[in-house]
Design the sequence.
């Protein structure tokens, strides 16, 4: 039997890439995608893919359905979309941590997280502080394996235009590798590769260490 992977954030920039890579991986037998909205009627799903519609505010109601070997979390929002610090923290801290706790109780052995460059629980920058606090809380759980990927600015096909991202693309050649933008597909490859290796212990992959394809 192959790995059963639970994927949260499957409709996001990195999550979409992870979904494509996981379903193409012969060592993965099933992908359980947690989504807020059910797929449109008539949508053809990959044979490995199972979709579970959930309210992340009531995630505990689905606890028994969260059994998986590995959990890949690409949940995240922006301050603009969230509308407030409290709403941002709920999506980027509360939901991932609740998922990690519930999945561990169901037997998950490896949690893999999309974090961010500069994540630090002591940061004065709210975004970086929340990301760092989540990493800190995840380390306190008893996962045999924990992988954290900290990408810089993400590049990819978004649903919305971002002027800053377009500027970053043009200036990428002049930016030190540590801060250089990284494709969402490369971030996904780092995550799915770490899941495939399934090494024990803590593994932190900084943006500069993400292989560019």
Sequence:
């Amino acid at each position: 039997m192959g790995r059963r992977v639970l994927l949260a954030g499957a409709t996001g920039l990195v999550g979409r890439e992870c979904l494509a890579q996981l379903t193409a991986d012969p060592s993965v037998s099933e992908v359980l995608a947690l989504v807020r909205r059910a797929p449109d009627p008539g949508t053809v799903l990959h044979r490995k893919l199972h979709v579970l519609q959930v309210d992340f505010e009531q995630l505990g109601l689905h606890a028994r359905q969260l059994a998986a070997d590995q959990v890949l979390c690409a949940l995240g929002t922006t301050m603009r979309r969230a509308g407030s610090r409290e709403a941002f923290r709920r999506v980027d801290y509360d939901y991932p941590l609740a998922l990690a706790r519930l999945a561990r109780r169901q037997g998950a052995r490896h949690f893999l997280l999309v974090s961010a460059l500069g994540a630090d629980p002591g940061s004065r920058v709210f975004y970086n502080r929340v990301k760092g606090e989540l990493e800190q809380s995840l380390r306190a759980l008893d996962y045999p394996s924990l992988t954290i990927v900290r990408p810089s600015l993400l590049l990819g096909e978004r649903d919305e235009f971002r002027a800053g991202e377009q500027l970053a693309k043009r200036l990428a050649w002049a930016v030190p590798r540590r801060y250089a933008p990284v494709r969402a597909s490369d971030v996904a490859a780092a995550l799915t590769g770490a899941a495939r290796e399934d090494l024990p212990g803590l593994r932190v992959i900084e943006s500069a260490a993400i292989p560019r394809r």
Remarks:
- The first helix runs from residue 13 to 24.
